[in-house]
Amino acid sequence: MTSSLRLGTRGSPLALWQANHIADRLRPVVAPQAVELILIETHGDRDQASALSAMGGFGVFTKAIHSLKDLPTIPTDGLELTAVPPRGPTGDAFISRKHRGFDDLPDGALVGTSSLRRRAQVLNRRPDLKLLDLRGNVDTRLRKLDEQQLDAIILAEAGLVRLGLAERITELLDPSWMLPAVGQGAIGLECRTADENTKHFVEALRDPDTFTRVMAERAMLYTLGGGCLVPIGATSKVADGLLTVRGAVLSPDGRRRVVATHTGPVSSPLAVGQELAAMLLAEGAAELLQPGPSG
Predict the structure, then answer these.
(1) Which 3-state string (H, E, C) describes the chain?
(2) Full pLDDT tens readout for the chain, 295 residues
C-alpha cells in the first residue's frame, strides 16, 4: 500500500484541529501508509450571511470530517458512520465580558447564538432576552461579542477547549435546562460503505461508550424526524451496563418544552433512542414537530 489515506476536512481552525487530531491517531494505525488532509469547501462555508436554519440546518457543513452534531441522521447512499473517537466536552458555554453568569443578565440583554436549539432553550428560561443570529468560526464570534457590544454569546464548550480558548468561558450552562445537541462534542468519521480496507483502519478509532451513546441519541433524533428544523437536545451516559438518554423537544420560540428520560441495555442503543422518541411523542412532542413557518 503506497497510496495515502485521504481525509476530507473544512478549512476553519476548528475543523482543521479535528482533522489533524484524527490524522495523528490514524498514522500509527495505517503506517507505513501516509495520511493526507484534503480541504473541502461546503455550502455552509460559502454562505456566511444566512442563518443556519434558513439553509436547512443539518448537513450544510458535512462533506468532510465533521462535528457529529452536524451530520444528518438520514443515511447517504454509499456512506456510513464508521467510528466516533472518545467524546470531548458536551456542554454549552456562556461567554461574557459584562456579566458573571447567565442568571446575571439584565432584562432585555442581547445574546448571540447561531443555534436554533440554544435559542429556544434560552427563551424557555428567559423569554425577556433578545437574541442575535451569530455566524462565523469561533474566533469570528468571539470578536463579534466585543465589536457588536453584545451582553453575551453562547458557543460549544468542545470547540473552545480544542482551540485553546477555554479561558474565555464565563460559565458552563446547566445541562438540565440547556441540553446539548445530539452528538455534541463528538467527531464523526464517515467512510464509503464498500471501502472495507479504510473502514478497517478507521474502526480502530471507535470508542465503544461514545459510539453507543451517540447512536442512541441519533436514533432518537431520526425517529423524531431527523432533519426537521425543530430545537432538539439530548444528554446521555453509560454506567453499569445501562444506557440512559434524556431528550427535549421545544417550540422555536421556547414557549413549549417536552422532556423525557429512558434507560436500557448498552447492547441496544438504537432501541433506547427509538423508545425515548416514542415517549417524547406521547408527551406532546408530535405537535411541536409539525412543519411550520420556520420548519
Answers:
(1) CCCCEEEEECCCHHHHHHHHHHHHHHHHHHCCCCEEEEECCCHHHHCCCCCHHHHCCCCCCCCCCEEHHHCCCCCCCCEEEEECCCCCCCCEEEECCCCCCHHHCCCCCEEEECCHHHHHHHHHHCCCCEEEECCCCHHHHHHHHHHCCCCEEEEEHHHHHHCCCHHHCCEECCCCCCCCCCCCCCEEEEEECCCHHHHHHHHCCCCHHHHHHHHHHHHHHHHHCCCCCCCEEEEEEEECCEEEEEEEEECCCCCCEEEEEEEEECCCHHHHHHHHHHHHHHHHHHHHCCCCCCC
(2) 457 898 888 888 999 999 999 999 999 999 999 999 999 876 554 444 444 444 344 333 334 576 888 888 887 889 899 999 999 999 999 999 999 999 999 999 999 998 999 999 999 999 999 999 998 889 999 999 999 999 999 999 999 999 999 999 999 999 999 999 999 999 999 999 999 999 999 999 999 999 999 999 999 999 998 555 789 999 999 999 999 999 999 999 999 999 999 999 999 999 999 999 999 999 999 999 875 543 3
Could you give the residue numbers annotated as active site? 70
